[in-house]
Amino acid sequence: MNKIIKKKDILILVALKKELPKNYLNDFNVIYTGVGKVNASFAIYDSYLKFKPLFIINYGSAGALNKKLSGLIKVTSFYDRDAYLTSKKIIINKDGLSCATGETVLKNNLKIYTDLVDMEAYVYAKFSQKFNIDFLCYKFVSDYAEKKSLKFWSKELLVGAELFKKKLSEICKIYNIN
Q1: Which residue in 73, 97, 77, 96 sits closest to 87, CA to CA?
Q2: Helices (H), 35-96
């Protein structure tokens, strides 16, 4: 990234306010997209037209398929799990883990090879790639994609929000964003 970027040039996409309360990042354009690929598609398109971002960051919760994963995870490979066999994998780089995006909550009944599952990230990665916008994605492991996951999903979301806030501060230092 060789461009000069200011906080107002960054678009942060989050599905729900529960995942990242509005007052956590006052200097950034934080958009709550709603859950799922359809909502994500409309939200990123509308936000792109409104803000013309130079940099897009997706933050949110995700289910882990590997029980050894926890905390905040950098995601750099994306799949559409609703079209898993036919969709093209999007790889931003190889220094993170993978996430498969689907329109429904995964309850461990689909055999896919990925680290995490969510409901929006693939859309953002694909949009960013198509329009040549720098993109980062961080997911907080909120559960382990099991039948009882919805019961536990929201318990630690504020922990994830704090971890993301710290990571965003690091990102700003690395890329000299002010």
Answers
A1: 77
A2: 37-51
Percent with pLDDT over 90 in the chain: 60
Euclidean distance between the first and the last CA atom of the chain, given in angstroms as a whole number: 15
Eight-class DSSP state of 3: S
- The pLDDT, as a whole number, for residue 165 is 95
Q: Alpha-carbon distance 152 to 91, whole Å?
A: 30
Average pLDDT, the chain: 88
| Both tokens assigned to 127 | 């949009």
Q: Could you tell me the pTM of the whole model?
A: 0.90
**Helix locations, 119-175, DSSP H:** 121-130, 149-152, 157-174
The domains of the chain, with CATH numbers, are 7-172 (3.40.50.1580)
* Sole residue written with tokens 């780089």: 93
Residue 79 DSSP class: E
Distance CA 119, CA 62 (A): 8
Distance CA 85, CA 79 (A): 10
Residue 18 scores a pLDDT above 60: yes
